[in-house]
Design brief:
The complex is a heterodimer of chains A (about 450) and B (about 450).
Chain A lengths: L24 H6 L11 H6 L6 H13 L6 H9 L5 H5 L6 H14 L5 H15 L2 H16 L2 H7 L1 H6 L1 H9 L8 H4 L3 E2 L7 E5 L4 H5 L1 H13 L2 E4 L9 H5 L3 H16 L5 E4 L2 H8 L1 H4 L6 H11 E3 H8 L11 E4 L3 H4 L6 H9 L4 E2 L15 H4 L1 H18 L3 E4 L2 H13 L5 E4 H9 L2
Parallel strand pairs in A: 2-3, 2-4, 4-5, 6-7, 6-8, 8-9
Antiparallel strand pairs in A: 1-3
Helix pairs in contact in A: 3-6, 14-26, 16-19, 20-22, 24-25
Chain B lengths: L3 H11 L4 E2 L2 H6 L14 E3 L4 H14 L2 E5 L15 E5 L6 E5 L4 E4 L5 H9 L3 E2 L12 H7 L6 H4 L6 E7 L5 E5 L11 H5 L8 E8 L1 E2 L3 E9 L2 H13 L6 E6 H11 L9 E9 L1 H17 L4 E4 L3 H12 L1 H6 L4 E4 L9 H14 L3 E7 L4 E8 L4 H20 L18 H20 L14
Parallel strand pairs in B: 2-4, 3-4
Antiparallel strand pairs in B: 1-2, 5-6, 6-10, 7-11, 8-9, 8-10, 12-14, 12-15, 13-14, 13-17, 16-18, 17-18
């Protein structure tokens, strides 16, 4: 016990976090810097340096709030180096909500206009312009689709010179998911009824990236839901859920998108709202927290958040229909960070997979270690992302299965890139896709 | 503040990439796992050879700066918290297991090997390294040796000290020595090895550690017993020892702790019991069978309300969850959690528990106690808020009384965590001034300029 006690009272008015969101002082105090977060942090695993660990970052945020550290390049770098995978939240004995701290810090950095102009601009472009607005997203997606179908990509593959001159572009174009011919929501009506009796009425978020690049997964999800006697409601007016914005500190855009979605989904009478993207599901479950103390939206948000269910969660709750035929393949599972750490869902997807007769399930080591996709992290921090992916690739090679299942578009794109680049035979599929194959739908 | 040409000299020794002086680095190396204490270092270095460490220590003697060694920085008494005018030597990249010798049952490891990493490696070849501190997934062997760390298996198997056969140490004057070795018996010269064990980084920096391994126990049996009186639980422990049984572990959770654990983990613990014991016996299957029966009988004879015996490894893990999540559960109640580790002779556990309860009432603070009932090492844990100066003062006074009572009962102020900074001012209660003077003489002899982790354990 100390004999000189120097406690520094954290009066909110005294902190340097003067913007929209104050890092919650209670949350900051809760961290006892015990270090149990260190072994699960991917960035600490790379550098071995305290500042790249969760407890280190918490101390840095606390220092900025207290005024003993400014918005230095070093501070901003660490806030950006963090993946926000929240593996530390799972490991933390004291229940520190680290994710909310780093997101608040990013928000603060953004509102105070700190950090390199280029980095800020790139993020602003992607997050506000491309992903948040449907028209922009369609436009950008169709541009990317044209680029992907032009000869440029294969030219790069054939030309070592081009690869050497533009290494980043080479990597990025391979990393980007293949844009579909048409976005999913243009192909399907707003309400789809199952063939037989309707047992459940569920909403479905079509989202941003998945809508343009993973239409196949959406189709698989809808087919599986219809197979389980669900009427599927996909409001045409819905928008991006706001998770990429929130995780990168743009709380305003995120809130406005959230409000739109809350109002739209509330206008339908739904038993549940199904999510097939871990990141989106995590944020929509947090809408209630987002709008705490909001006089109009707090209750509305709570209603919506309580209906959000990951596909695996929903299917285990209602009872998964066993596929009638065998599916004799080896399968393993990768835990998306926003499913295992944010939503604490890890049992249900495994139960679903292992319910399929004939499946040989093998548990992968470090299944819940981040793949390095982390939203747009693999674009803005490409080489760090690749280092983290390399560790994952080793485990995929070790478990050596035919199918690797993941429930998040970012993870699927990232792991697919790793698998392809290393010439591996494992196929990465979404849980919905695996189920559709098993059901022969 | 160390001089800038000293920084240059350090960079010349370890290379620029292994020297950190940014404010962000200093802030994040200013703490370890100890609550409330922190101090900015002047620099952090990552040497990659024992010669580099020796050079740094020689430089420290010439330039008169302090050196603070650090492993994972998870200590609970302040052993690796920086001091004035100091350079932190970060050893956590020294993480190779150099050799596992199955014939001689030893292993040479680097100090930065994580304890659970060692467990996995030796268990894979049928061997066993017993010490299992609560932080074993993060903490390093070097830190364990410096603090003589304990763990749940301490009752039967002993502590880190019992598993160190040799050390390679860089002395504060830069000389490199090796003490001990693979032989079970060795009485040549003074027993230097034991001097360094538990010296909390004040007498030397470890560069290689030779650990002792034992054969892995074949099987184990775990059970939990609920009691409506702490005295009954205490008597159960005595009864077990009287039967000449030494279980692998006997862990204790008091009422406050049980409440918090149930709220946190929801594993079905009853809310109306006074305390519980978690017991595990291990070894040869026939012995385990016999001992488990006898242990169960001891619980029954001492009024255990209910005894649950695990039927398989999964159930055993479930039972252990209560104990393993005790700290987490307590830590979630209030923002600041202060963990202490007073130890009393086994026969005095019930008395000590009563004293702790009385003291927490007297000072109106919340204390949950859990710990290693089998060896008398208890963790009275204060749940408080560091932003309330009055409550912090009451907590400080409460712990002072707890320390005094523990010593009165023939015990000590720290069983596992070390003296460091946190308990420096209470050392005289246990050791007395003459013993502390003897410690000072030893420190003066090995570190005349007092450059290595000064101000830890005692002041000169």
């Amino acid at each position: 016990m100390p004999h000189t006690l120097k406690t520094i009272p954290m009066n909110p008015q005294q902190t340097l976090f003067s913007g929209v969101v104050l890092p919650d002082d209670d949350v900051l105090t809760r961290c006892m810097h015990c270090g149990l977060c260190l072994p699960v942090c991917p960035t600490y695993a790379i550098t071995g340096r305290e500042k790249s660990s969760p407890r280190g970052r918490i101390r840095l945020i606390k220092s900025v709030a207290k005024g003993t550290l400014g918005y230095t390049d070093g501070f901003i770098e660490e806030m950006n180096f963090c993946l926000d995978c929240q593996a530390c939240e799972t490991a933390c004995p004291a229940g520190v909500k680290y994710g909310s701290l780093v997101e608040s810090a990013r928000n603060q950095i953004r509102t105070e206009q700190k950090g390199s102009f280029i980095s800020r601009s790139v993020k602003w472009f992607f997050i506000r312009q491309v992903l948040s607005k449907k028209n922009s997203l369609q436009f950008f997606a169709s541009m990317l689709r044209m680029y992907q179908r032009s000869g440029i990509v294969s030219l790069f593959h054939r030309s070592v010179l081009l690869q050497k001159l533009f290494p980043k572009l080479t990597a990025l174009q391979d990393l980007a998911p293949k844009i579909d011919e048409r976005p999913f929501d243009e192909l399907y009506p707003e309400i789809i009824a199952p063939p037989g009796t309707i047992k459940y009425r569920v909403g479905f978020l079509t989202g941003c990236v998945m809508n343009s690049a993973f239409a196949g997964v959406h189709e698989d999800t809808v087919k599986v839901l219809l197979h389980h006697d669900c009427e599927v409601v996909m409001p045409k007016q819905q928008v991006c859920c706001g998770s990429l914005q929130a995780h990168n500190g743009d709380f305003e855009t995120s809130r406005s998108l959230a409000k739109t979605n809350i109002d739209i989904f509330l206008s339908y009478d739904l038993d549940a709202i199904i999510m097939n993207s871990a990141g989106c599901g995590a944020l929509m479950k947090e809408y209630a927290f987002f709008f705490r103390n909001d006089p109009i939206y707090e209750q509305k948000a709570q209603l919506i958040s309580s209906k959000i269910k990951d596909l695996s969660e929903f299917l285990t709750a209602i009872g998964l229909k066993r596929p009638p035929q065998e599916f004799p393949h080896s399968v393993s599972y990768h835990d998306a960070c926003h499913l295992v750490h944010s939503q604490k869902i890890s049992r249900e997807p495994r139960m679903v997979i292992q319910s399929i007769t004939g499946v040989l399930y093998k548990e992968m080591d470090e299944a819940s270690w981040c793949c390095g996709s982390a939203g747009i992290y693999n674009v803005v921090r490409h080489s760090d992302s690749m280092q983290i992916l390399a560790r994952k690739v080793l485990q995929i090679q070790a478990v050596d299965v035919e199918y690797l299942v993941a429930s998040n578009p970012g993870c699927i794109a990232q792991l697919d890139y790793g698998i392809t680049k290393n010439g591996m035979k494992t196929k990465i599929v979404h849980l919905a896709t695996l189920l559709r194959m098993a059901y022969r739908l | 503040m160390i001089l800038s040409n000293t920084i240059t000299a350090l960079a010349a020794i370890v290379g620029n990439d292994n020297l950190f002086t940014s404010l962000e680095d200093k802030i994040t190396y200013s703490y370890d796992g100890t609550p409330l204490h922190s101090h900015l270092p002047d620099a952090i270095v990552r040497p990659s050879s024992k010669e580099q460490i020796a050079e740094i220590l020689r430089l420290a003697n010439t330039e008169r700066f302090s050196v603070v060694p650090r492993g994972a920085g998870t200590g609970l008494s302040g052993g690796s918290i920086p001091v004035d005018n100091c350079v932190v030597i970060d050893m956590n990249r020294w993480n190779s297991i150099l050799e596992i010798d199955k014939e001689n049952l030893t292993a040479w490891v680097e100090p930065g090997v994580i304890t659970s990493q060692l467990h996995l490696a030796v268990e894979a070849v049928g061997l066993f390294y017993p010490p299992d501190p609560g932080s074993m997934n993060v903490c390093t062997i070097g830190g364990n040796v410096a603090e003589n760390s304990g763990g749940l298996r301490g009752l039967k198997y002993g502590v880190t000290k019992n598993y160190v056969m040799g050390l390679e140490v860089v002395l504060p004057n830069g000389q490199i020595i090796t003490c001990g070795g693979k032989t079970v018996k060795d009485v040549a010269g003074y027993n230097l090895k034991d001097l360094f064990i538990g010296s909390e980084g004040t007498l030397g920096i470890f560069t290689k550690i030779l650990v002792k391994l034992i054969p892995k126990p074949e099987t184990s049996r775990t059970m939990v017993a609920y009691f409506s009186s702490q005295t009954d639980a205490g008597k159960t422990v005595s009864a077990i020892i009287a039967q000449k049984i030494i279980p692998c572990t006997i862990e204790f959770l008091d009422r406050t702790t049980i409440r918090c654990v149930e709220e946190f983990a929801r594993i079905g613990l009853p809310m109306d019991i006074e305390c519980l014991l978690l017991l595990e016996v291990d070894g040869h299957p026939a012995v385990v069978e016999d001992e488990a029966k006898k242990v169960e009988e001891c619980c029954r004879q001492n009024n255990a309300q209910e005894i649950i015996v695990a039927k398989n490894a999964d159930e055993a893990l479930k039972l252990k969850t209560a104990r393993r999540s005790a700290f987490s559960a307590l830590a979630r109640v209030r923002p600041t959690t202060i963990l202490e580790d007073i130890t009393v002779p086994r026969s005095e556990i019930a008395a000590m528990l009563e004293k702790i309860n009385a003291i927490s009432k007297k000072y109106n603070i919340i204390i949950g106690t859990f710990g290693h009932a089998g060896d008398g090492n208890l963790h009275p844990t204060c749940l408080t808020d560091e932003r309330d100066p009055d409550e912090m003062l009451r907590a400080e006074k409460a712990y002072e009384e707890i320390f005094v009572e523990a010593v009165k009962l023939g015990g000590t102020i720290t069983g596992e965590h070390g003296t460091g900074l946190a308990k420096k001012k209470f050392l005289h209660l246990v050791s007395g001034s003459s013993a502390i003077d003897a410690m000072r003489s030893i420190k003066k002899a090995l570190d005349p300029n007092n450059i290595l982790n000064p101000g830890k354990v005692f002041d000169m």
